[in-house]
Hints:
67% helix, Magnesium transporter CorA, CorA_cytoplasmic_dom
Amino acid sequence: xxxxxxxxxxxxxxxxxxxxxxxxxxxxxxxxxxxxxxxxxxxxxxxxxxxxxxxxxxxxxxxxxxxxxxxxxxxxxxxxxxxxxxxxxxxxxxxxxxxxxxxxxxxxxxxxxxxxxxxxxxxxxxxxxxxxxxxxxxxxxxxxxxxxxxxxxxxxxxxxxxxxxxxxxxxxxxxxxxxxxxxxxxxxxxxxxxxxxxxxxxxxxxxxxxxxxxxxxxxxxxxxxxxxxxxxxxxxxxxxxxxxxxxxxxxxxxxxxxxxxxxxxxxxxxxxxxxxxxxxxxxxxxxxxxxxxxxxxxxxxxxxxxxxxxxxxxxxxxxxxxxxxxxxxxxxxxxxxxxxxxxxxxxxxxxxxxxxxxxxxxxxxxxxxxxxxxxxxxxxxxxxxxxxxxxxxxxxxxxxxxxxxxxxxxxxxxxxxxxxxxxxxxxxx
Length: 429
């Protein structure tokens, strides 16, 4: 049943893609754009619910094109288990497809960084990379790269230790290991992504679970600027420098966002709904500021390790010290932002308390106004009132009594207003 369902969804997806292509060529006027996406979503949901043996059996029955499409929808956590179930021929095809976007190798050509397509061991044998970058690699990819270069590539999901001895160390064979956090700042979603660095035979190996803006920026710079990097250590320092720049840009965004919130908070009035929005915005910026502080702290620890172990040349040492000075300046900004966040948080909470006090004041005024009315209503409900008004028709007596209650309520309200005005005049200006 699973095989048949997968085949049906693939057929619907291909039909929708064909219709979409025809529509884009102008042959049809109907809006058929993106009709194939729901089929892919259904297929992705179905694939995530299948077990590794069943999914491997389905991939074995599909054509190479369909198998590649389904393989692209397999969750990363299932990839290794599925590869263990398929035969060697299909495993090589699927694994090579994954490498096309998870493995990036770079070598120097005329002083510039040049990316080399890697799909097999023969491709690696033809290049002399200074940087091998792995993005969300499978266990098979890590074992393949590690076996080729003679080292062990760690799993980025296991980089959770905080102690320095587990994050920065040198192996007996001279391998330099650094596990650092890099900031990923997106609207409403800021995270620290762990990255593993290994310096081995003047080659930098980097492993992470997802793509980061800092890495894209450094690849672009090294490709366009001649002499930007000369070896793997230069590439490592440039990545740390770019991370500090990225953190500084995120701090500028924090200043801008908190400035907008400050304009709203410093108004004379603020509703509870506006206060809730302001609190959410402040909390988001507090989280981002905390992640920036953690990020620069981790970068400082990594650079300090490289400096103390005397693993840098004279020029590289100067670059590392400059990055440390930049990080030192960012510390002052993060501390200032924390103070600003606390001030704005207290101001918003103060507005909420003021609004609550206004509501309580109105309720208090109403209770004071109705207090004498409750006394009169109690008197009017007693039998003595009927005895005192026995010579007066009851509609007239109760009408006069009701009118008297309104007069008493009005007089009580007037007295309260006069008291407030008198109290406000006595306050010092």
